[in-house]
Design goal:
Structural class: alpha/beta
Shape: globular
Mean pLDDT: 91
Number of helices: 6
Radius of gyration: 16 Å
Number of strands: 8
CATH class: Alpha Beta
Number of domains: 1
CATH superfamily: HAD superfamily/HAD-like
Largest sheet: 6 strands, parallel
CATH architecture: 3-Layer(aba) Sandwich
Low-confidence stretches: 184-196
Length: 196
Amino acid sequence: MEKQIILFIDSGDTLIDEGTEVRDDEGVVIKADLIAGAGEALRLIHDEGYTIALVADGNTPSFDNVYAQHRLRYCFDAWVISETVGFQKPAPQMFRTAMDQLMLSDTDKNRIVMVGNNLRRDIPGANRFGIVSVWLDWSPRYPRESRGEDEIPDYVIHSPCELPSLLQNLEEAVNRGEALKKTGFSADQIQKVQLQ
């Protein structure tokens, strides 16, 4: 059964462990490992009927290679790569392109959830665009401190394994008519935003 929540998700250090990437001479990723539990979580979310868009910065061949390697390409209903769009997150064009590919309008924004690892790109991009932001704080390679309001996520998870439960809770909230976007959190309250 199709769900109300629509998932936009980043790739590097959100699903794919960037520390394991093997690149060719031109910088294209030819293979990489998944973060523990990411493949299972993505398959489960797909099988439960969620619409999923990959919204990622990089070059298209890298994503083609990695998701073919792990046989996960079928999980995505939209495929938005910065090389193709001509912009990188936090640019609104990345999120608008995903909406366009999925034939969504601005009235759908209240049910779009962007999950990413980067407090400088994924989170402010989602917040400025008016969609729900979820920070996966797994990565040791990126900043872990918010510098301002637009870098404060609505929700925080620590592992891709937590994503199916979060989406289920958000789906239930949408079905009850509740707003998913949190507002007014200060940087020192970020840990209180975590999934209960």
